[in-house]
Description:
Blueprint: H1 2-31, H2 38-55, H3 60-88, H4 97-120, E1 134-137, E2 140-143, H5 144-166, H6 168-178, H7 180-185, H8 190-215, H9 223-237, H10 242-262, H11 270-282
Amino acid sequence: MQALQILIDGFAISTLYALGALGFTLIFGVSGVLNLAHGGLLVVSAMVAWYVGTALGADAWVSAAAGIAAGLAVTLVTYGAVVRPVQRSRAIPGAERELFVLTATLLWGVMLQELLDYWFSDTPVAVKPLLSGTVNFLGVRTPINEFLTAAIAWAVMGLLWLLVNRTDIGKRLRATAINPRALTLLGFDLERIYLVAWLIYGLLAGIAGVLIGSFLGSGSSYIAGLTGSAFTIVVLGGLGSVSGTLIAAYIVGYIETLTAYLVSPALREVPALLLLIAVMYVRPQGLLGKR
Length: 291
């Protein structure tokens, strides 16, 4: 029974990780930004959803919508107040801007953690499940919400695939990832394309944060772990590779689940980080990455 429970929980966790990491991958692929405040965006979404649902007594779906809106808002603040000023600064040499953006997002993530500690304390909380109750699945009693969160995550990822591959906006995003200079020469406004990418990223982060919060719980202390998991997934899969991100999310998700069940929940993130170190030595471009 434990093996089946690990398979079920691992699948749900991996799917949620994939949803969160896809936004991380999208932003890096389109704008070259590794956002180290990623975990902070997820936790802000979860904490707002928890507050609206618990402290204000709102319906679970209303609180989820509030959490997603909060995640989107903080994502836009991250882009407009943290990333863009560094990218536009004339005082920073062009060759060093990526490093400064990386540092700025890291510090912003720390600030978000301190703000969440101040407003909500550092005690972990659970977001209201979208559906309550349990179901008997092959002899294992599993919360209905666990299946629902995985289904929603896959539905969102399917919509993202359609957006990227079947719409003009998606074509521009892919073209920007390949050759932004060519788009500029063709008369496209890169600023608008980058803004669209961050909007999509904000929605993905908001949804992933709320779903993770309803399944695993959330709190300011989760920020570093969520950022580390997303970074591990993206590097393991290959920077900018969507297919690699999906594969890596399931590898990391199942490794963490196995560790939590068979060793200790406190050590669930350690094996994945060790795997990341090994990959950086043996295959730094990741599973399906080209750079």
